[in-house]
Design brief:
A 6-stranded mixed sheet has the order 1-2-10-7-8-9, sandwiched between helices. Strands 5-4-3-6 form a 4-stranded parallel sheet, sandwiched between helices. Helices cover about 40% and strands about 15% of the residues. Helix 12 crosses helix 15. The chain has about 400 residues and is an alpha/beta fold. The protein is built from 15 helices and 10 strands. It has 2 domains: about 240 residues, Rossmann fold; about 120 residues, Rossmann fold. Bound molecules: pyridoxal-5'-phosphate. Pyridoxal-5'-phosphate binds next to helix 9.
Length: about 400
């Protein structure tokens, strides 16, 4: 990775983000009573190269694909130096293959940038309403952007169909990919290390709460899977979904494996949180989450903006609306009847709790877009209370 991307030289090629203490945000949002325990923000909004949580899963899948081709063609053996993947010989080989993906934006950025850097033909299928700046950035990196009418699921379906028809092409399937999932899951080990370094114990007397913005479910599901493997019953992961797009909530609440979408219950899947605007949950991830997930809460769009502004005002951290979805988690847990019931039923002692709010994207958002988010939030402040309004 350090060979491919000079900006990764300082971290030796590792793509990781800091765990940032968030006492100022805690003070701003929860004040006194609701503020039991310690709050942190996991800064995946700053993940280098891709600028979002998608770097974790997306880079893993493209590298795994590159590795499998290199091994099949004898330029890399299982014990070999992976830097040959960045060699001229590997590039020449990879240029005969294409890597494609359907995306609302951030997954396309992650897959497109990594695939193009290795020399693949990179194709990103996007819904027509995907943000223009994301399309522009991809095109500048040499990625082919194909626009589709309809929503994200239709872009994915069209991409899958075209890739299956083409020889030597690999389709990154956000709805079913195990390689994406494992890439996300690897975040857990690093978080455990960071918690230990921060002096935060995780055990029966010191529960860990993690609040994860959720789209199709892959990123938050993989992270939950990894954290459960390390911390078992002492970690409690909650997904945060937009009120209009609670696809994992709808799927889990249905109680079965038959696919159910947000449209089926009369919602329109229209939200400014473009990274979370998914109508149908991943059929790979939802069954796994049925036994692992603590719960799902929903967030109105207005609240995303109010919390995005609170984060900027209290901590000078600027994120995109999708990435603000987890910010209401701790207050939801302490103040809503459903959150209180969860704490009570599980006999949790909140005094020594650790709360990790996962910020998932924003550092590549152009400054004028960030200013627009902020202006919208400022216009809303005063109309919307800071307290969570659990809608489900
Ligand atoms: C994709 C994304 C998520 C959620 O990941 P899923 O795998 O779709 O659930 C959260 N936040 C941001 C900014 C994203 O781009």
């Amino acid at each position: 990775m350090a060979t491919l991307f000079p900006e990764l030289a300082p971290s030796n090629g590792h793509i990781e983000s800091q765990l940032m203490p968030a006492a100022a945000l805690q003070q701003a949002l929860a004040g006194g009573a609701g503020a039991a325990g310690a709050w942190f923000i996991k800064r995946d909004d700053e993940l280098p190269v891709a600028g979002s949580i998608k770097a974790r899963g997306g880079f893993h899948e493209v590298l795994a694909f590159a590795e499998s081709i290199a091994i099949a063609h004898g330029i890399l053996d299982a014990a070999g130096d992976p830097r040959v993947l960045a060699s001229a010989a590997a590039r020449a080989l990879f240029s005969q293959y294409s890597v494609s993906v359907g995306s609302t934006g951030n997954l396309g950025l992650s897959i497109g940038v990594m695939a193009a850097a290795l020399g693949f033909e990179a194709v990103v299928h996007m819904s027509a309403d995907a943000k223009a700046w994301k399309k522009d950035r991809l095109r500048k990196r040499g990625v082919r952007v194909v626009e589709h009418e309809g929503d994200y699921a239709e872009a994915v379906a069209a991409g899958r169909e075209q890739a299956q028809a083409a020889p030597r092409s690999h389709f990154v399937d956000d709805e079913r990919s195990a390689m994406l999932f494992f890439g996300y899951a690897a975040a857990a080990r690093h978080l455990a290390h960071q918690l230990a370094q921060a002096g935060r114990v995780v055990d029966a007397a010191h529960p860990l709460f993690v609040y994860l913005p959720c789209g199709v479910g892959g990123a938050p599901g993989g992270i939950t899977y990894g954290l459960k493997a390390l911390f078992g019953e002492h970690v409690h992961c909650f997904f945060a979904e937009p009120v209009a797009s609670p696809c994992v909530l709808v799927q889990l609440a249905s109680g079965g494996d038959a696919p159910v979408s947000v449209y089926d219950i009369g919602l329109d899947n229209r939200t400014d949180a473009d990274g979370l605007a998914v109508g149908q949950a991943s059929p790979l991830v939802s069954p796994l989450m049925a036994s692992q997930l603590a719960g799902v809460f929903t967030v109105p769009d207005d609240q995303l903006y109010v919390h995005l502004l609170a984060l900027k005002t209290s901590m000078s951290v600027e994120v995109e609306p999708s990435a603000a979805a987890g910010i209401g988690g701790p207050s939801w847990l302490s103040d809503s009847p459903a959150g209180q019931a969860y704490v009570r039923d599980n006999g949790l002692d909140m005094r020594a709790a650790t709360h990790v709010i996962w910020a998932t994207g924003g550092s590549l958002v152009p400054p004028e877009e960030l200013r627009r988010f902020q202006a919208h939030a400022e216009a809303l402040t005063g109309q919307v209370s800071g307290a969570m309004q659990p809608a489900a």
